[in-house]
Amino acid sequence: VIRCRAAVAWAVGKPLSVEEVEVAPPKAGEVRIKIVAAGICHTEEHTLKGSLPNVEFPVIPGHEGAGIVESIGEGVASVKPGDKVIPLCIPQCGECSFCLNPESNFCQKSHLCEPQNLLPDKTSRFTCKGKQIHHFLWVSTFAEYTVIPEYAVAKIDAAAPLDKVCLFGCGFSTGYGAAINTAKVKPGSTCAIFGLGGVGLSVVMGCKAAGASRIIAVDINKDKFARAKELGATDCINPRDFQKPIQEVLTEMTGQGVDYSFEVIGHADTMIAALASCNMNTGICVMVGVLDSGSEISIDPMLLLTGRTWKGTVLGGWKMRDAIPKLVSSYLDKKFNSDLLITHTLPFAKVNEGFELLRAGK
Ligand code: NAD
Ligand code: ZN
């Protein structure tokens, strides 16, 4: 058993509390990882607010991180102590029908198909003050050590800087893949991205890498525009600067509406605006933002009848175990610069300050 620090969410709406926890050794088929760096994704904020379904408290959140294998359970063959790894909040068992389908990345042997935030054997490896603490999406990267099923771990290049590639566990991969895999953005096309947080800016990067000729970035916080331009946005617009709905502004800017639109915020009204912003016939709109659990969206069916496609994405459509090591290699080969997504670096004890910065749009 390892004693270390972890940020525990004891109840909905409470700040995280950095506590000493006990982390049990990995059982058969599991890996214990020393987490070196973690990012903060807005999905974490949804979790702390209690608006993500099936999350039981107390829980150790965090799903975007990178670390080093500390020990392995019986039968683990794909990683060994000392390997650099990224924990995967969508695993890849390699055997289920979705893993066998080249078009899918939604492994059925995951916490999402069997809602519970314990490990697959329905127990936890975390205790704090004598109480069992839940895992989060199996990864719980806000702990100095965490235990994860082997098929939810991706081994990456030993040269990778963990404080930079931790973003590949969620934010970067989601946004970049939403453009490349889910929308399949074509060269010369026009794109609109609603929401320029870490994930939305990664969509901008994906659209640019796919060769889009016009990339329109949309946010109500104009402080995000300089970074968006640096990453490839050709136009940046603030819906609050216009009298008319933003979908009309985008349609006028592009003639018929964009070829691809992305909602990367998580609000029903911006989901509808993004859908209406892509062209009525061949436009593709990708839903990336997470709505509060139980929310519903009502749309005019004509929006789809004329031919538009509306789709969602989980982690950018990547088959995570296969894709993450390749994305890390591309990063090391300088194919893109995801370091520009990093705005602040804080010591672990200041994790709540990180959330303050996220809430403040910094
Ligand atoms: P973030 O908080 O860093 O960024 C959100 C951005 O949206 C901010 O820049 C904010 O100013 C902007 N915004 C808010 N309201 C707006 C409005 N009405 N119009 C235009 N812009 C507005 O968030 P993030 O970490 O980038 O995450 C974005 C969303 O993606 C969240 O909902 C998150 O849960 C979701 N997400 C989904 C997946 C997935 O697999 N589908 C993965 C990761 C994150
Ligand atoms: Zn995330």
From TrEMBL:
<dbReference type="GO" id="GO:0042573">
    <property type="term" value="P:retinoic acid metabolic process"/>
</dbReference>
<keyword id="KW-0007">Acetylation</keyword>
<keyword id="KW-0560">Oxidoreductase</keyword>
<protein>
    <recommendedName>
        <fullName>Alcohol dehydrogenase I</fullName>
    </recommendedName>
</protein>
<comment type="similarity">
    <text>Belongs to the zinc-containing alcohol dehydrogenase family.</text>
</comment>
<keyword id="KW-0520">NAD</keyword>
<dbReference type="GO" id="GO:0008270">
    <property type="term" value="F:zinc ion binding"/>
</dbReference>
<dbReference type="GO" id="GO:0042572">
    <property type="term" value="P:retinol metabolic process"/>
</dbReference>
<dbReference type="InterPro" id="IPR011032">
    <property type="entry name" value="GroES-like_sf"/>
</dbReference>
<dbReference type="Pfam" id="PF08240">
    <property type="entry name" value="ADH_N"/>
</dbReference>
<dbReference type="GO" id="GO:0004745">
    <property type="term" value="F:all-trans-retinol dehydrogenase (NAD+) activity"/>
</dbReference>
<dbReference type="InterPro" id="IPR013149">
    <property type="entry name" value="ADH-like_C"/>
</dbReference>
<dbReference type="Pfam" id="PF00107">
    <property type="entry name" value="ADH_zinc_N"/>
</dbReference>
<feature type="domain" description="Alcohol dehydrogenase-like C-terminal">
    <location>
        <begin position="198"/>
        <end position="325"/>
    </location>
</feature>
<feature type="domain" description="Alcohol dehydrogenase-like N-terminal">
    <location>
        <begin position="28"/>
        <end position="157"/>
    </location>
</feature>
<dbReference type="InterPro" id="IPR013154">
    <property type="entry name" value="ADH-like_N"/>
</dbReference>
<dbReference type="InterPro" id="IPR036291">
    <property type="entry name" value="NAD(P)-bd_dom_sf"/>
</dbReference>
<dbReference type="InterPro" id="IPR002328">
    <property type="entry name" value="ADH_Zn_CS"/>
</dbReference>
<keyword id="KW-0479">Metal-binding</keyword>
<dbReference type="GO" id="GO:0005829">
    <property type="term" value="C:cytosol"/>
</dbReference>
<keyword id="KW-0862">Zinc</keyword>
